[in-house]
Amino acid sequence: MNQPHDETRVVSTPDPIDFDALAARFRSLYDAEPDGLWAAPGRVNIIGEHTDYNGGFVLPIALAQHTVAAVRRRDDSVLRVASTSMDDGAVVTLNLTDIVEGGNYGWAAYVVGVGWAAAQRGLPVTGLDIALDSNVPVGAGLSSSAALSCVTARAWSDLLDWRLDDETVADLGRDAENKIAGAPTGLMDQLASVCGQEAHAMQIDTRAVTIEQLPFDLTGAGLALLVIDSRTEHSHADGEYAERRHSSQEAALRLGVRELRDVPLESLATTLDKLPPLLRRRARHVVTDSARVEQTARLLLSGDDLRRIGPLLNDSHASMRDDYEITVPSIDTLQEAAVAAGAHGARMTGGGFGGCVIALVDQGDAAAVADACVRAAEQAGHPTPAIFQAVASGGADRIR
What we know:
Blueprint: H1 7-10, H2 19-30, E1 36-47, E2 57-73, E3 78-83, E4 92-95, H3 109-120, E5 128-134, H4 144-159, H5 166-180, H6 188-195, E6 200-205, E7 210-215, E8 223-229, H7 239-255, H8 268-272, H9 277-302, H10 310-322, H11 329-340, E9 345-349, E10 356-362, H12 366-379, E11 386-389, E12 397-398
Parallel strand pairs: 3-5
Antiparallel strand pairs: 1-2, 1-12, 2-5, 2-6, 3-4, 6-7, 8-10, 8-11, 9-10
Protein name: Galactokinase
Enzyme class: transferase
Family: Belongs to the GHMP kinase family. GalK subfamily.
């Protein structure tokens, strides 16, 4: 019989960021002191996938994992940025006056795009010097890109006294991703990164752009939320994500509604009969997953047993697998293994085609469920997953 994996190896926590080391790196790169340090978290979406660009509801939490930026304001239009995890830490230098839609700026597009978006709104924009570090896993569907754009937006806003509300800070991040980085994301990722609160989940109405903070105290309920990174990388900017977005828009057009959010759940079956099979499946996922967000929110507000969220997570995963077709074998393996090992529910989270699975488990079962997922992945020939417990945390802010 195989021996259990070491619990400390199976369930771990990403290494914290050393703020002093980042400030020292800034001084080394730019021979100057930073004006301050800012942080913005990644996010994990509890339920409601691909509903954000359809005007529907989503339910994310901000993570304890952050992108941290040491930043100094410049008096010209030059932006210099370096990241410990990109391009061997080399400094990328760009001029804000040269930035245009469709340009190729690599990973720095998520940074410089914020300045471009601010200028489009008529805000005063000067250059910045930036040094970055992050412990948000990249390519895992945990919004490392939103953490990057939002920490930049928060720092720029603070340093230039733009006095923006949280929603506008988030929107600057989205514009950077959509129009300069070329990633067609909705607004959920950025809102979650900017507006997160400790021990709360956010029910976001993506059409009205309103946020309801809901109690999300898993520890008090004896529960834990495992984030199981399949280490199967995905990309929001690829053709598959764009196709799902196009299919959703086409389905709404054929049904004569503004967005799929407007399709009534009560008459869904008869309404969808008007669509060809592919669009029918795509629309069914969007409408039902948005409804599952509302069901989950009611559970969180009711004080009911949070374990009742589990079946909704399972249903969401089945919908993404069968109707939206955005899961992959490594993801399905992890979801099935988590449920078989005792998780109350599990689902893929994020844009799809890789990334992470989340599993709602009793605290005492976390290591056993994680161990089962590692074994299942290895036996199926998939990459060994990395697993940590998610903690609902605060949003983007100045930390020094």
